[in-house]
Amino acid sequence: MMTGDAVNRVLAAYQAIADEARARREQFEKSPLPKIHIGMATCGIASGALETQAAFEAALADRGIEALIHTVGCVGHCYAEPVVIIDHPDSGFPPIFYPEVTPGKAKMLVKLFLEEGDPRFEHVMGATVENEMIPSVMEFARFNREKRVIMERCGRIDPDQIHEYIAEGGYGALTTALCRKPETVIDEIEAAGLRGRGGAGFPTARKWRAARAASGSDKMIVCNADEGDPGAYMDRTLLESNPHQVIEGMIIAALAVGAARGLFYVRAEYPLAVRILTTAVEQARELGFLGTDILGSGLDFDIDLFQGSGAFVCGEETALIRSVEGYRGMPRHRPPYPVEQGIDGRPTVINNVKTLATIPPIVEKGADWFRAIGTAGSPGTAVFSVVGNVTHPGLVEIPMGVTLRDLIFDICGGIPDKKRFKAVQIGGPSGGCLSADFLDTPVDFDALTRAGAMMGSGGMVVMDEDVCMVDVSRYFLDFTQKESCGKCTFCRIGTRHLLDILRRLTRGEGREGDLEQLETLSRAVKQGSLCGLGKTAPNPVLTSLAYFRDEYEAHFKEGRCPSCACRALTAFFIDLDKCARGCDACVGCCPVEAVFTTSNRKKGIDQQLCVKCGECVVACPPDYDAVEKVSPAALVPIIERPPEKNKAES
Amino acid sequence: MEHSLTAEDQAHLEILQTQIKSSPKGRGQLIPLLQMAQKALGYLPDDALSLVADHLSVTRSEVYGVASFYNQFRFNPPGKNPVKVCMGTACHVRGGEIILENFERKLEIREGETTEDREFSIERVACVGCCALAPVALMGEILHGHMAPSKVEGLVLQVRLEKEKAQREAAK
Amino acid sequence: MITLTVDDRTIQAPDGSSVLSACLSAGIIIPHLCWMETDSPAGAPAACRLCLVEIDGFRDPVTACTVPVENGMTVYTGTEVVRSLQKMAFKLLLSVHRVDCKHCPANKACALQDIAKFLGVGLGCKPFERVLKEPEVDTHHPVFDYYPNRCVLCGLCVRICRQRHRQPQLSFAGRGFETVVGYFDADPLAAANCVSCRECLAVCPTGALVERTAFEGSTRGNS
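Predict the joint structure of the above. Result:
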């Protein structure tokens, strides 16, 4: 607890910084010039946001129009990237959200909207605020069902400009925390019921209290951004879109537990996040939020960056610690827990990115506010990356307790192409596949665990009828088997045998007793493994066996893949009744020249050459829709390739 | 260990040596130094591992033991255009494996290998976190979303054409 | 001293020792491969997963090497759950093991044979298929040959090397199923600093490290 003088000093220091930040922000906002906000996180860039920005710049220069280009992070609407919001006060229209802004569209918008005042309604998704002229995006479930705590400012602010975060109240919670007793801060987090967002849902306050109580002066805070779950990318997006909220949360955590050093453990596969985070830490240091004597409080705390070298197991705390220490990232038995003995023996708190990002809002708005969101057992919000066979993939932040059905069908638009929903995989390689029977399960830590899945880091992959559950299990085991550190017997060898059995099944080579063996071995690996990776690796197998056993049996007994997804069990053919004479769409797209022309100028597929990539299915015009799949492959109708006329045999 | 160092590699190695010399010591520096070495050379030849080992006063077997644990580190030179195909869940569900196969077929190398002209190499990577754009592949630093077998051909062709163009320009 | 009950026997052990060490001292056999006498409960690698026991108060079986003894603790070393997990772990180890005892120098002094006898199982691995590594033997080290298909990756050789020498010459290399005991990817020069203390050979429980005779060493050294 600081003296009254110190409190006043801290408040004054923050006030001065905040005033300047707000002034800068206001200057930008009050400018009469049109503003073009472009989403520039990795997804946006991959979709061509840089080209879009260049097109805007070129078009503005060509037409001699002045406008402010504002690069922001990700709004989470990945299906609509590149996303652009144009705020053109002179036009009389509210700020407008445009999806899929290609360079061509950018040029057109500069001419027609910025120059001539026509917002081109056919390209608009909606206005970002309620108004009388254009329907607001808030009329869509994708927007109005969300509750943003962690991602509140993502896509609104430029992550490279600390003042934009501060102008929105950023680092205010830190100032509040600096003026309180560390115990009071922990009490607040405890009262809020915050549970770790990294997967297991461990109460954050309990972890902090244990670290605070631990002896040893050189304590550390680690932000775990080693997001390795395939299918989850919210940590990356958060770091790329609003790094300061995470940094602020980390400083508050440090104050609470009494740590002087912090470490961001970020995957090296996330170069943009690393770059943005580096800049952010420097800016925070320049303004005195990091370093010695933070805001004149007398407290010291600074943050380093460590780039994880790509080992999924390093998401596990003890393995992460080993890799920071410069060793092979192999987990060890707990206890001792990292809060007692972490990096180089120092008490170490390891929190997930989203957990830390949740801290500032709680400190600022209070435990009661947080408790009012979500469910009693899992207060607050959850960020999911909903991807796979879903109409509106992207990042969604919802209050805990929303059902899977609402999330997948209402908020994310359901399954595209009139296909049927089959399963949703939650929690990555440690989670499970849930069938349609579970769609009314609320998403919170406990309900998902009861169903056999787990919250994990929030990856949610939606699967339609064309996805084979046996193949998905094989995929996950392939992943965990490759990522097993190799230390303990069950995980190192057990996952390998699980994979071998699943491989056999997807090839139609299943043997008597394989399904029973899968179950027995899965249970043993779960019980016998040393760390979380091994203990959860069989979950995808066990859940899919429980909910989709008929699919396993079809593979095993009939050599048939009901979804026609396992390529060894499937053949493609062209329905001659549907195929249009003279159309060559499938010929050009085939990467192996397996499509041939029949004697009556229709098409056939050479089964010997076909690699079953499915390109011809996509290429075949919807009016004909002539390419069919069949399993088992032996059922494919035989269409003879006519003898080649002019080609010499080689 | 069959790879002999090119003149270019040698030059990089010398720069690396000075970089490493001015770096802090301590076991915790092992992974950052390996990353630095790989950034300089594109891979970790024996000599680079030795530099790191000597600087930190640990044995080479120890350094190799650590380096061989992590996916990031490679011990053979990558192509000038390293192709990385994402094998995340969303990419898998949308045909990532087919994209990988197409690259392998087109470049006539397997995953983990480099073409003879050292132009291309192929590797599979765990999720790159662009799941909404699945399937995804990286060529160099550039990420390509919504991949399709036909796009694979286009990308490879584009690189080859650019190279030919550059050679023509150089010949002028 | 701490007093605890193991399988209806009352035994005593020094404070801070592990259940495994307490049991072994009292002559109660618990199969294990990766544990060293010097290991504290917090420092044991707990990698082989053979020393599982059930303890009152713990929901699931636990590794005896990582649990410190406590007064009044009740331990069961031979329950059905424990035995079935031990047999599974053992079978898994055998599924990557070249069973060719007749030609193995560790024959009759092999930890795997002892464990098989104790558990009352054979050396087969059905229904799992045997998966072996290539090559069968690594002959690059100046002092010993390494047989990956005999190795159980208990890590004793790596750890003893680390304990005896400030600069260990042995390390694990690779990851996961591909993990081996290595020394700079089989570069003989890297192992040149080996002082030939032969401690690694002595601790190997299976015959994965085999000392090369002087004659063999000289011919291989020239190749």
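The radius of gyration of chain C is 19 Å.
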